[in-house]
Write a sequence for this structure.
């Protein structure tokens, strides 16, 4: 995309999981993300499980349930619906001080495919191509 080229965010399609993590880490740094980012497996298991191509917004409540499932983006985004869901969740139960890492989200029968390690993969770690991992923040 020409807009990506203008701002210097342009990458070749990753061919390995390690390359995918590198791209995600670079994007996190460039975009100054302050929230965790999870890298999908090379088999795109999370994307397939959540029909997330090209992208989709979800809100997971504190019990680990899907509280909001947005339309396929970017044209299916409904920011007001997403905001309303967040407000209703906050009114119903103010956020706990615990982090998401304190209690894993129940992923149902496909939990094995959607789990993420607690630490980002490093060069010395052996990461299988079908294991999701968080990108460095």
């Amino acid at each position: 995309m020409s807009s990506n080229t203008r701002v210097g965010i342009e990458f070749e399609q990753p061919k390995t999981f390690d390359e995918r993590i590198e791209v995600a880490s670079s994007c996190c740094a460039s975009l100054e993300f302050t929230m965790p980012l999870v890298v999908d497996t090379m088999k795109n298991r999370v994307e397939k499980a959540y029909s997330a191509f090209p992208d989709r917004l979800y809100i997971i409540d504190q019990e680990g349930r899907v509280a909001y499932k947005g339309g396929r983006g970017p044209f299916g985004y409904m920011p007001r619906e997403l905001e309303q869901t967040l407000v209703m969740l906050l009114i119903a139960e103010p956020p706990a001080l615990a982090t998401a890492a304190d209690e894993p989200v129940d992923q149902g029968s496909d939990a094995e495919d959607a789990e993420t390690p607690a630490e980002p993969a490093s060069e010395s770690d052996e990461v299988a191509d079908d294991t999701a991992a968080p990108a460095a923040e």
